[in-house]
Design a protein that fits this description.
Elements lengths: L1 E5 L5 E5 L11 H6 L10 H8 L4 E6 L19 E3 L2 E3 L11 H13 L7 E4 L2 E6 L2 H21 L11 H12 L13 E7 L3 E10 L2 E11 L9 H11 L2
Antiparallel strand pairs: 1-2, 3-7, 4-5, 6-7, 8-9, 9-10
Helix pairs in contact: 4-5
Length: 245
């Protein structure tokens, strides 16, 4: 992603964030031996024709989108590469594989099948939500994010460290993804932010009061860094307020 910083002359300069190593592997030989997936990708000109005429647009980047798709354990060794630090193989789908774009689009259409071409578009790992008014575009964006969030929660794997909690974990997933747990935005009502912190993580729930009952809109959580885990209890609680929104 990009952030805007101020230079010595008080000018705002867009700067790319450095978040760590980005590995680029040459998979040409692997792609030559791979049976191609004929799943069709959208044509740019057709997509632009559907987008034109709308007054408002919202563009989102599928951050690490490809890396959210696991590779079959039997095929992981095919992605193996070597570097000065050792020999590694991907457990999730990286960029550079010939069938990666088609696989990702197939997954996105499975999630947003009734929304693509009507309220949003997906091109590679970029998402475009459109509308003929600000409220219309915002409503469609909210619907898209709710769909993505519910799908992610529903597909969370069972915990492996404590076998006795699997039933409770499934119950929690069911309660978090079924209506009317998650509600859409209503700008006429005040927001409420509930935060909490443990020794190793922070969490928050954004919601609103409806008929005296709290209705969540969005959940957020984050694992603390080693330095943050040394904060006092009060500092951890404040960290949850600052970091989660």
């Amino acid at each position: 992603g990009f952030t805007v910083v101020e230079n010595e002359e008080n000018e705002l300069i867009p700067t790319r964030l450095v978040t760590g190593w980005r590995v680029c592997i040459d998979y040409q030989k692997l792609n030559e031996a791979t049976r191609k997936d004929p799943f069709p990708l959208p044509f740019m000109d057709q997509m632009l024709e559907r987008l034109v005429g709308n007054e408002y647009y919202c563009f989102l980047d599928g951050f690490s989108g490809y890396f959210q798709i696991p590779i079959d354990p039997r095929d992981q060794e095919k992605t193996m590469f070597t570097c000065p630090y050792g020999t590694f193989a991907y457990r999730c789908m990286p960029f550079g594989l010939c069938n990666a774009p088609g696989t990702f689009r197939r997954c996105m259409l499975a999630i947003f099948h009734d929304m693509v071409e009507k309220t949003m578009e997906v091109f590679m790992d970029d998402f475009s939500v459109f509308g003929n008014s600000f409220e219309n575009c915002l409503s469609r964006l909210d619907e898209m994010l709710q769909r993505a969030k519910v799908d992610v929660i529903a597909k969370l794997p069972n915990p492996t460290s404590v076998k006795d909690c699997i039933k409770d974990f499934q119950t929690l997933k069911k309660e978090l993804t079924e209506a009317p747990i998650l509600i859409s935005l209503n700008w006429d009502l005040p927001f409420e932010l509930m935060c909490n912190a443990s020794d190793f993580a922070i969490g928050a729930v954004l919601g609103k009061r409806h008929e005296k009952h709290f209705k969540p809109i969005h959940y957020a959580s984050k694992t603390m860094t080693d330095a943050e885990s040394n904060y006092t209890t009060t500092e951890k609680e404040m960290l949850a307020v600052v970091k989660n929104p």
